[in-house]
Design brief:
The complex is a heterodimer. Chain A has a domain of about 80 residues. Chain A has twelve helices and twelve strands. Chain A has an eight-stranded mixed β-sheet, sandwiched between helices. Chain A has a four-stranded antiparallel β-sheet with strand order 2-1-4-5, with helices on one face. The longest helix of chain A is centred in the middle third of the chain and has 18 residues. Chain B has a domain of about 260 residues: Rossmann fold (3-Layer(aba) Sandwich), CATH 3.40.50.300. Chain B is built from twelve helices and 13 strands. In chain B, the strands form two sheets. Chain B has an eight-stranded mixed β-sheet, with helices on both faces. In chain B, strands 1, 2, 4, 5 and 13 form a five-stranded antiparallel β-sheet that branches. The chains are: A alpha/beta, B alpha/beta. At the A-B interface, helix 8, helix 9, helix 10, helix 11 and helix 12 of A face helix 6, helix 7, helix 8, helix 9 and helix 10 of B.
């Protein structure tokens, strides 16, 4: 079940900055035999300390399953995980339950989408945050509580001493998400995986949480994997963006590059289908069809039936994820007929003329 | 009852549908389809097991005036809990209004009841956020579409098939969809069924409550385009309720911004986005993540402190003063501002704002300052200290 690292072009860049997390050819299959469904299909990426890597895609593209597989949180039965995910040189996928529990919370942490269902409703908040500290730092209960209080204060929860005694239902959505972030950061993890951390929140609260995450990454050199469907969130936060479609990475680029010059028709289509606040109103160009129109990757490009620039070879041969010629080794693309390098109007975000003051 | 194919109300006046900005022409402003005057919806908060005591109210909608012209799209934005959905439901009389008038074609709906209200409902339909939850899983699309038409006497017995196929064609579904059940469709297709159902009775007004927020972006664009096409084709009037400012701006002619049960600003869509006047509108717009790294890196964000205060215990004076970076010592916490036209260069009279200091903020005379976070407890009510003997308060809330 080991990957062929030499075959992966992503390895070129890992030679320059030692990655903290290296995911190679990760494959997750649910069910078996004829009812087999491959949710994640050969995903590889690296995350360096202090770097923010985005996994972007629509529902069902496998972005959450990728994160759960890395964290060892998928159910023990009913799925097959292949490939490798190494954290600071140690393989996570084959690690025993005890070892993994030691790592989770201390070295790796995760923030989930829905803060209410991720918190225990019958345990006071302070106990939940202190629990993590007690387990990993081996400090006394009183000391752990004190650290929990400091942590809640750090993530911007007002009056933390009072909040420690409260239950999750007594907090607003934004405060719950802050509490969850406090739990995740309590032991200063080196890697943080945030799975749609702001999707359930209002925009003003989302802005607060994103600012908080940005600050944490800058201050503490934490590596962040940001999983989201919102290209706006990606544009402000991620250094490198992976666009997923039907379980595979279809395009990888730095954020400026990706938004200015999308090469994969799916990325271009996504960008063209979002209404913009700062631009002239025109008719949106949606991506036609839905994910149910996909063809299996084995037969060609899964996106081909919805693709406006599909050619014959797209339904005959599976495209490989290769460096995009002329764009350096960091820019990967899985497409037979990519969008022209300086694209037409579609998706090229012009800087806004007027700014909100 | 008129037949479905030749409804005189369906013929749009040409000046409002020719171009997407048609609703803004001064000539159209007289033709008001819906007028809301001082609408209030308060939900009682009850306590006790055997004897219900009303211990307070949730001020979900607290005094809203607005007018929607025939053929225009009015967008209502706000964060969760601001009362925008309750407002939409109250217009259709799905919530009991506490006070105020809802004039639809000049008839006050709040005073109607029973059969009179039921007949009026034919002219206003709703599209819901969750397409799966709002479609009966045990009915086929044909049954779903026919139910409303039968209820309003638009079809008798057979002969409706042509009309059904026409409806499906209008929303971009194949005719084979008629015999399918909701679970057989994808999210986007389900929303199309929901829209077809709303259209089935030839309504004049469609209240769309977050019609695209449950959909993926690529599908979202399809539904947005569909709504725009249908409006052009059928001369519909929309009240679009959404939290996504970019979506609202994209399809609305006029936009109202809601905060804690009241409008804080109202303007033509482009004017509002070109120059937001209310501090809350500014903060809201600066908080929207823009899918463009160049914009994201350069722009300055106004980060609001804290959360939305509880609508059961709204702040005094200006509802926004607890989080407002431009809050002043006087007036803000004592006097509730009304929507008013301001005298600022470049701001048209159609833009109205509920802020005492809008002129000074726009001219830069007042500068934003730090705001201390105030605690907000979502479970708090006016009489929070009054702990009931039988456990926590039960908030009577319509869904």
């Amino acid at each position: 079940m080991t990957a062929q690292p030499t075959a992966d072009p992503a390895l070129d860049r890992s030679a320059r900055t030692a990655p903290l997390l290296a995911v190679r050819d990760l494959t997750v299959t649910f069910g078996r035999g004829r009812r087999e469904f491959r949710a994640v299909d050969g995903v590889s990426f690296d995350v360096a300390p202090g770097q923010t890597v985005g996994l972007v895609g629509e529902s069902g593209c496998g972005k959450s399953v990728t994160s759960l597989a890395i964290m060892g949180l998928l159910p023990a039965r009913g799925n097959t995980i292949g490939g490798s995910a190494t954290f600071a040189g140690e393989e996570l996928l084959t690690m025993s339950g005890n070892e993994l529990r030691d790592r989770r919370g201390r070295d790796l942490a995760m923030i989930f989408q829905d803060p209410l269902s991720s918190l225990n409703p019958v345990v006071p908040l302070g106990t939940q945050v202190a629990e993590v500290i007690e387990r990993h730092k081996r400090v006394s209960r009183g000391e752990a509580r004190e650290q929990a209080r400091a942590m809640l204060d750090k993530v911007g929860i007002p009056d933390p001493t009072r909040r420690l005694k409260e239950y999750p239902h007594q907090l607003s959505g934004g405060m719950r998400q802050r509490a969850l972030i406090a739990m995740a950061l309590a032991c200063e993890p080196r890697l943080l995986i945030a799975d749609e951390p702001t999707t359930a929140l209002d925009v003003t609260i989302q802005a607060q949480i994103l600012a908080l995450l940005k600050e944490l990454v800058q201050d503490s050199e934490t590596a962040l994997v940001m999983i989201t469907h919102d290209l706006g969130v990606v544009a402000g936060l991620c250094d490198e963006v992976n666009v997923l479609y039907a379980g595979r990475i279809v395009e990888r680029a730095g954020r400026h590059d990706l938004f200015a010059r999308p090469r994969h028709p799916y990325t271009g289509g996504l960008l063209a289908s979002i209404p913009r606040l700062h631009e002239e109103r025109g008719r949106l160009t949606p991506v036609p069809g839905s994910v149910s129109d996909n063809i299996p990757w084995e037969q060609g490009c899964a996106f081909a039936p919805r693709c406006s620039s599909a050619i014959d070879v797209c339904v005959q041969q599976t495209p490989e994820l290769v460096p995009d010629p002329g764009h350096g080794p960091d820019r990967l693309l899985r497409c037979h007929n990519p969008l022209p390098a300086p694209p037409t109007a579609a998706g090229s975000g012009q800087p806004a003329e007027e700014e909100t003051p | 009852m008129s037949s479905p194919t030749q409804d005189p109300q369906q013929v749009p006046s040409p000046d409002v549908t020719e171009d997407p900005t048609g609703g803004r022409t001064p000539g159209a402003s007289d033709d008001i389809l819906l007028e809301v005057r001082g609408l209030k919806v308060h939900f009682p908060i009850k306590k006790g097991v055997f004897i219900d005591r009303t211990v307070g109210h949730v001020y979900a909608v607290d005094g809203i005036d607005l007018q929607i012209r025939r053929g225009e799209t009015y967008g209502l934005v706000g964060e969760s809990g601001c009362g925008k959905s309750t407002f939409g439901r109250a217009i259709l009389q799905l919530e009991t209004t506490t006070d105020g008038e809802v004039l639809f074609n000049g008839t006050d709906l709040a005073s109607l009841g029973g059969e009179a209200l039921r007949t009026q409902r034919r002219h206003m339909q709703m599209v819901f956020q969750d397409p799966l939850g709002s479609l009966d899983p045990r009915q086929t699309v044909e049954q779903l579409l026919l139910e409303g038409m039968r209820a309003h006497g638009l079809v008798m017995g057979g002969g409706a098939r042509e009309r059904l196929i026409e409806l499906l064609r209008a929303v971009g579904l194949p005719r084979t969809a008629l015999s399918k059940y909701p679970h057989e469709f994808s999210g986007g297709q389900r929303q199309r069924v929901g829209i077809a159902r709303a259209l089935s009775v030839n309504p004049q007004l469609i209240v769309a409550d977050e019609p695209v927020s449950a959909l993926d972006v690529s599908v979202q664009a399809q539904v947005i385009n569909l709504l725009a096409d249908l409006q052009e084709e059928l001369g519909l009037t929309y009240l679009l309720i959404a939290h996504d400012l970019a979506v609202v701006r994209h399809i609305s002619d006029r936009v109202g911004v809601m905060y804690l049960g009241a409008l804080v600003e109202e303007a033509e869509a482009d004017d509002l986005y070109a120059q937001p006047l209310h501090p809350y509108t500014r903060a809201l717009m600066s908080a929207v993540p823009v899918p463009d790294p160049v914009v994201e890196d350069s722009r300055e964000q106004i980060l609001l402190a804290g959360d939305l205060p509880s609508p059961a215990n709204p702040p005094s004076g200006c509802r926004f003063h607890t989080r407002c970076p431009w809050r002043q010592e006087t007036r803000c916490d004592t006097e509730r501002p009304e929507l008013r036209v301001v005298q600022i260069d470049g701001v048209p009279p159609s833009q109205r704002v509920a802020c005492h200091w809008a002129e000074q903020i726009a001219s830069g005379e007042l500068q934003p300052h730090e705001v201390a976070v105030t605690l907000t407890d979502p479970t708090a009510t006016e009489s929070d200290h009054d702990e009931g003997l039988f456990g926590p308060a039960s908030v009577i809330e319509a869904r």
